[in-house]
Amino acid sequence: MNLNGKKIGVALTGSFCTFEKMFLELQKLRNAGADIYPILSNAAQSITSRFGTPEQYKEKIKEITGKEPIICIEGAEPIGPKGYLDVLTILPCTGNTAAKLANGITDTPVLMAAKAHLRNNKPLVISISTNDGLGMNMKNIGLLLNSKNIYFVPFGQDDFEKKPNSLVAHTELLIPTLEAALEHRQYQPLLQSYH
Ligand SMILES: Cc1cc2nc3c(=O)[nH]c(=O)nc-3n(C[C@H](O)[C@H](O)[C@H](O)COP(=O)(O)O)c2cc1C
Fold first, then answer.
1. What's the count of helices (H) and strands (E) in the chain, helices before strands?
2. Is there a smaller number of Cβ atoms within 10 Å at the N or the C end of the chain?
3. 14 in helix, strand or coil?
């Protein structure tokens, strides 16, 4: 399914090392003609790290999408009643957000957006990036994989020697994964090696 004219929510959480790759995908979505609605978790809009500052992220998001990001729960809530998104992606999705989503917790703008969007029976695409994917968070990823209307960007072990529990999505597969999700299909293969 073509993404031209599609309304796509892109919800950023605090996996800051993935932001550069995420911005590349955001630009690709824009080039494909998507209408992008950015959403920031509390961490994504407040933490300064060696990867950048919240001000830099917001500036870049505005530059690419032409929109101010949604930064509060009340800003994300209308996604439910208005039902304006065709598809929502959590890109990148931290272990923290995956764990909360799998357990019905809704305490950030990103989680509010996900809950609001899912109530409309529309697809949610998770682009996981977490050091505990094969550890503490495996059970939560399993719950999400088995949940209605939730799809995953294919992922794999990005550094099995130094970080044996780490799982990271192949963000370059975001567009085909979104296209499949809009048809309520999981893009395959889901597990993809980094070697
Ligand atoms: C520099 C830096 C990099 C981080 N990278 C990741 C990461 O790749 N994956 C992850 O799950 N958490 C990562 N975290 C931790 C999250 O930011 C933290 O768990 C935060 O509470 C996530 O909140 P959120 O899921 O609402 O965005 C990182 C934190 C910092 C400061």
1. 8, 7
2. C
3. coil
Token output for 15: 């996996």
Architecture per CATH, domain 7-182, reads as 3-Layer(aba) Sandwich (3.40)
Cα torsion 71, 150, 171, 178: sign? negative
Q: Is 171 in the pocket of ligand 1 (CB under 6 A)?
A: no
**Alpha helices, DSSP H, located in the chain:** 19-31, 54-65, 73-76, 79-82, 95-102, 109-118, 138-145, 174-182
pLDDT of residue 179: 98
**For range 123-131, the mean pLDDT:** 98
| 15 close to ligand 1 (CB < 6 Angstrom) | yes
Helix axes 138-145, 95-102, angle to 10 degrees: 50
Q: Where are the domains positioned within the chain? A: 7-182
Measured in angstroms, how far is the CA atom of residue 5 from the centroid of ligand 1?
31
Read off the pLDDT of residues 75-101 as tens digits, 9 standing for 90 and up. 999 999 999 999 999 999 999 999 999
Nearest CA to ligand 1 atom 2: 16
Give the tokens for residue 80: 């439910």
